[in-house]
């Protein structure tokens, strides 16, 4: 907001209308030990012209994805966004759209939500999808809560090949829920099926698997399904939705609740968000789903209309009957995803996924030819892969950043006890020239 018109006199009038003398009374319930009582070391006040000049100067210090060559993934990816996506999302009828609670004045919003749900259900080959959730991590956590509620069991098994950030979100959601979270170790880059089988019992509510997983490897999804369902547990997946254009969809290998991160569909990286979480499930679990589900109907005159069919949050129904306190569906982000999917179509999405697949394998092969470098896991992968490096990955990351190349992620910072492993992601935006340049500087960075 570039201009705030409230004067000191305006603020005094507002406080008087509220019935308090000063602003501090409004935050009196906050414990004093949590309040900052020091002196802010702020610079002298600037005029509007001076302030705008300073902000413009500082903004030029930012280096965005357009200036850098990005090989970083781990859940957020530098995909191309067609110009039409931002153009449509920026139309005022969308970014100022009326809340969908009152269908008579929000048909456009409800139609977009309905179309979004239909696309996600078709892509995942599941029966029903909701209107999106905050992001991929919270979608997975909500799926875990669904499994616990549905089975009335208190044990969740989660593969350590699941994105560590997602696992942290699940742990946060379940804190205080009296649910045991049991991590299942990885073996050669995928879920250790023997360890999973040993941990499964009749108290297991669900098993969480990511496919492709955090290392980019493809899991043994059919073997996992047979094992999970044999013990009466629910099969929960977190998938890269773009991969579903060329990989078998979760609905075809027995997943009970599908989740994913929709950022790859027309949403920019935006320093980490906001993104949108995807969720779809079987018909029999529909009343356990959090958030909203839009439906299609007819009015008394036979005209097509859209309504919110399910609103299972606590603001709409009794708290003890609510499935979740999720209170938004990231509608603008979901709109971007809907526009992107409509623009790409089935064939376009497949072409993008195949391009990511081919380019990532090209780069992995080129890096593996360098002395001291090799693929960490000899497993099939989609667009992301782990490379064993001859030196500390942080050194590589630092050196390549000077050439405006974001080299990847040092896996050691997570809970894998894997040293000298760099996680590299390749999207359709990476050209052969950029990938060859990456290989050149990798070689240079490891030479003494």
- SSE pattern: HHEHHHEHEHEEEHEHEEEEEHEEHEEEH
| Oligomer status | single chain
Number of helices: 12
Stated plainly, the CATH topology of the largest domain is called: Aspartate Aminotransferase, domain 2
Shape: globular
Mean pLDDT: 92
Number of strands: 17
Beta-strand residue percentage: 15-25%
| Sheet with the most strands, sense and barrel status | 7 strands, mixed
Key features of this structure:
Aspartate Aminotransferase, domain 2; globular; four-stranded antiparallel sheet; Aspartate Aminotransferase, domain 1; alpha/beta; 35% helix; 448 residues; 17 strands
Describe this structure in words.
- It is a single chain.
- The chain has helices at about 10-20, 50-60, 85-90, 90-95, 105-125, 135-150, 165-175, 195-200, 220-230, 330-370, 395-400, 430-445; strands spanning about 70, 130, 155-160, 180-185, 185, 190, 205-210, 235-240, 255-260, 275-280, 290-300, 305-310, 375, 385-390, 405, 410, 420-425.
- By secondary structure, it is of the alpha/beta class.
- The strands form 5 sheets. Strands 2-10-9-8-7-3-4 form a 7-stranded mixed β-sheet, with helices on both faces.
- Strand 5 (about 185) and strand 6 form a beta hairpin.
